[in-house]
Write a structure and sequence with these properties.
Elements: H1 2-8, H2 14-17, H3 29-42, H4 45-57, H5 64-76, H6 80-88, H7 95-107, H8 111-123, H9 130-143, H10 146-158, H11 165-177, H12 181-189, H13 196-208, H14 212-224, H15 231-243, H16 248-261, H17 267-279, H18 283-292, H19 298-311, H20 315-327, H21 333-346, H22 352-364, H23 368-377, H24 383-395, H25 399-411, H26 418-431, H27 434-447, H28 454-466, H29 470-479, H30 486-499, H31 502-515, H32 520-532, H33 536-548
Helix pairs in contact: 1-3, 3-4, 3-5, 5-6, 5-7, 6-7, 7-8, 7-9, 8-9, 9-10, 9-11, 10-11, 11-12, 11-13, 12-13, 13-14, 13-15, 14-15, 15-16, 15-17, 16-17, 17-18, 17-19, 18-19, 19-20, 20-21, 20-22, 22-23, 22-24, 23-24, 24-25, 24-26, 25-26, 26-27, 26-28, 27-28, 28-29, 28-30, 29-30, 30-31, ...
C-alpha cells in the first residue's frame, strides 16, 4: 500500500495513482497523514486537492491531525486563503494547528495576520510553544513592531521557553534588527550553548547598525569558538567591511575564507566582495571578480560602477560597463539616470553606442520623453539610434510619433532596415493606423527591396484583424509564401474573438492546437468564441480538451520597481 502512496505523488502518472481514491472505502488516518506528508514533500498540489475532497467525502473533515496537515500543505503552497478556510472550519484546534497558521502567515509575508492570530490564540487560552514564539517574533522583526515584540518577550519570560535556544536566537535577531543592540547583546550573553543562527544575528545586527568593529569582533569570537561560518555570516562581515571603511587586507582575508569554504560560486557573496573591494579602493580586485562571474547581476555591476565613479578617473570604464548591463537587460532606470548624468558631466560628447544604450534604457523603462531627450542629445546617430526610438514609440502606443520619426529618418538620409519596419508595423497595428501600416509595408518591399519575414506578415495580419478586416487578413495569410506560424494564426484567432467570426476562429484554433498543444490561451479564446455565440456544448468540449491535454492557464503577474530606497550617488559630494 505504501508503494501506491509513494506513486501518488509522482506527477507523471496521475491516472493510475488516483485510482487509489476511487474506492469509497476510507483508509486509516495514519495512512492519510503519510499521503499528505508526501504531497507536502513533492509539492503535489493537484493530488492534495483530490485527497482533501476525499477526506471530506469519507467523513474525515473534522479530524484534528489531518486538518493541521492540510493547513501546513496549503501554507507551503502559498495558498493562505485555503489554509485559513480549513482552520476556521476546525471544531477543535491544538497548539500545532495555531502554530501552523502563525508560521504560515509569517513565511508568506502576511506578518500582521500572523500577529493578530497570535493574539487570538492567547485570548483563547492556548499556550504557545517554541515554534509559535519563533514565528511570531519573525513577524515582529519583519515589521519592526518593537512594542508587540516586547509583549511577546514578556510572555516568553513567564513561560517555560525562556532558556530555549531557538526562542532566544529569535529574540536576539528581533532586537538586533530593531536597532536595540544592547538588548540583543545582553540576551546573547545569557545563551549557554550558542549556535550559528544566534551568532549570525549578532554579527548581522552590528553590521546593519553601522558598528563594523563590533561585527568583526563577534566574527573573530565565533571562529575562535570553533564554529564554521556560512554564506550569511560572510555576507554580514562583508557588509561591515564595505560600510565601515576597513582596510583592503581585511577584505582580502574574508575573501580567503570565502574561497576556502567554497562560497565563491554564490553570486550574492561575490557581489558583496566586489562591493567591499570597490568601496575600499581596490578596483582591480573588484573588476577581476566581476569579470569572472558567469552571470552578472544588477548588484555586482552597480557596485563596480559606483566604485569607478567614486574614484573619478574611470569614466570610460563606468560607461562601458553600463552599456554591457543594458545589452544584457539588467540595468535599472535609477542607475541609468545616474550614469546619464555622469556621462553628461564628464564626457559631454559620448559615443553612439552609449547614446543608443541610454535611449534603449529609457524606452524600455517607459520614460519615453527622456528617451527622446537622450536621442536629441546625440551628436552622431546611426540606424540603430533611429530604430531604437521608433521601437520605443511602438511599444508604448505612440504610433503617429513612430511614423513621423520614420519619415524624418528618411529625410536625413538614413536607410531603415527590416527591424525598423518591424517596429513600424507593430506601432501601426496597435494604434489602428491601417493606411500608414500598408504604406510602410509597401516601402519596405518596393522601395528598399527588403524581403518580409514571418514577423512582418504577422504584423500585417494583425493590422487588418484589429480593424475587423478579417477577410483581408485571411486573404493575406493564404497568399504568403512562407510557413504559417503560431503568431500568424494567433492574430486571426484574437480578431475572431473580438469580432465574433466563429468559423475562422475554429480554423485558426485548430492550427494552433497542432502547433502549441499545451498553450492554454488558444483553448480559452476558442471557448470564449463559442460561449459568445451561445454554443455552450462546444465551449464545454474545448474546456474538457484543455483539461485532457493538461494545458494550464498561467497566473498573471506584474513587476514593479521599488522607489523608497535612497540611491547611492555615483559621485560623493565634494
Amino acid at each position: 500500500m505504501y508503494s501506491k502512496i509513494q506513486s501518488l505523488c509522482n506527477l507523471g502518472r496521475s491516472p493510475e495513482t488516483l485510482n487509489l481514491f476511487s474506492n469509497p472505502t476510507p483508509l486509516h488516518t495514519s495512512l492519510y497523514l503519510k499521503i499528505l506528508q508526501l504531497c507536502i514533500d513533492k509539492k503535489a498540489q493537484n493530488q492534495c486537492h483530490l485527497i482533501h475532497a476525499h477526506l471530506i467525502t469519507n467523513g474525515f473533515g473534522s479530524d484534528l491531525h489531518l486538518n493541521t496537515k492540510l493547513i501546513i500543505f496549503y501554507m507551503k503552497m502559498g495558498d493562505v486563503i485555503a489554509a485559513r478556510k480549513v482552520f476556521d472550519g476546525m471544531p477543535e484546534r491544538s497548539v500545532v494547528s495555531w502554530t501552523a497558521m502563525v508560521s504560515g502567515y509569517s513565511q508568506n509575508g502576511c506578518f500582521e495576520k500572523a500577529l493578530m492570530l497570535f493574539s487570538d490564540m492567547r485570548h483563547c487560552g492556548v499556550k504557545a510553544n517554541q515554534f509559535t514564539y519563533g514565528s511570531t517574533l519573525r513577524a515582529c522583526t519583519s515589521t519592526r513592531y518593537l512594542d508587540m515584540g516586547m509583549q511577546v518577550q514578556g510572555c516568553i519570560q513567564k513561560g517555560r521557553f525562556v532558556d530555549n535556544l531557538f526562542v532566544k536566537s529569535a529574540l536576539v535577531d528581533f532586537h538586533s534588527k530593531c536597532g536595540k543592540m544592547e538588548d540583543a547583546s545582553y540576551l546573547f550573553e545569557t545563551i549557554k550553548e550558542r549556535d550559528l543562527v544566534s551568532w549570525n544575528s549578532m554579527i548581522s545586527g552590528y553590521a546593519v547598525q553601522g558598528f563594523a568593529d563590533d561585527s568583526f569582533c563577534m566574527f573573530r569570537s565565533m571562529l575562535r569558538g570553533g564554529l564554521v561560518p556560512d554564506c550569511y555570516t560572510l555576507g554580514s562581515v562583508l557588509r561591515a567591511s564595505a560600510e565601515g571603511g576597513s582596510a583592503v587586507i581585511v577584505v582580502s582575508q574574508i575573501h580567503g575564507i570565502v574561497a576556502q569554504l567554497g562560497y565563491g560560486s554564490y553570486d550574492i557573496v561575490t557581489g558583496l566582495l566586489i562591493n567591499a573591494y570597490a568601496k575600499n579602493g581596490s578596483l582591480r580586485s573588484a573588476k577581476d571578480l566581476h569579470q569572472g562571474m558567469l552571470k552578472k547581476d544588477v548588484f555586482s555591476s552597480t557596485a563596480l560602477i559606483t566604485g569607478y565613479a567614486r574614484e573619478g578617473i574611470y569614466s570610460v570604464d563606468a560607461l562601458n560597463l553600463f552599456k554591457e548591463m543594458n545589452q544584457t537587460s539588467i540595468a535599472s532606470l535609477s542607475l541609468g539616470t545616474q550614469v546619464h548624468a555622469f556621462a553628461v558631466k564628464f564626457q559631454l560628447s559620448y559615443d553612439v553606442a552609449m547614446g543608443n544604450a541610454l535611449v534603449d534604457m529609457y524606452s524600455k523603462s517607459g520614460v519615453i520623453e527622456d528617451a527622446k531627450r537622450a536621442f536629441d542629445e546625440m551628436e552622431e546617430k546611426n540606424v540603430i539610434s533611429w530604430t531604437t526610438l521608433i521601437s520605443g514609440y511602438a511599444k508604448h502606443g505612440y504610433g503617429h510619433k513612430a511614423v513621423s520619426l520614420y519619415k524624418k529618418m528618411e529625410s536625413e538620409g538614413f536607410e531603415p532596415n527590416d527591424v525598423t519596419f518591424l517596429s513600424l508595423l507593430f506601432a501601426c497595428s496597435h494604434t489602428g493606423l491601417t493606411d500608414e501600416g500598408c504604406d510602410c509595408f509597401n516601402d519596405m518591399v518596393n522601395k528598399y527591396n527588403i524581403k518580409p519575414r514571418a514577423e512582418h506578415y504577422s504584423c500585417m495580419v494583425d493590422l487588418f484583424a484589429r480593424r475587423g478586416l478579417l477577410e483581408e487578413a485571411y486573404s493575406l495569410l493564404c497568399r504568403i509564401d512562407i510557413k504559417r506560424n503560431a503568431s500568424l494564426w494567433g492574430a486571426i484567432l484574437g480578431a475572431s474573438s473580438i469580432y465574433g467570426y466563429t468559423s475562422l476562429g475554429e480554423e485558426a484554433a485548430g492550427n494552433l492546437f497542432s502547433m502549441q498543444p499545451e498553450n492554454s490561451v488558444n483553448y480559452v479564446v476558442l471557448a470564449g468564441i463559442y460561449s459568445a455565440a451561445g454554443l455552450w456544448d462546444d465551449a464545454w468540449k474545448i474546456r474538457k480538451l484543455m483539461e485532457d491535454r493538461k494545458a494550464k492557464k498561467n497566473a498573471g503577474y506584474s513587476l514593479f520597481m521599488a522607489t523608497k530606497r535612497s540611491m547611492i550617488p555615483l559621485m560623493e559630494a565634494s
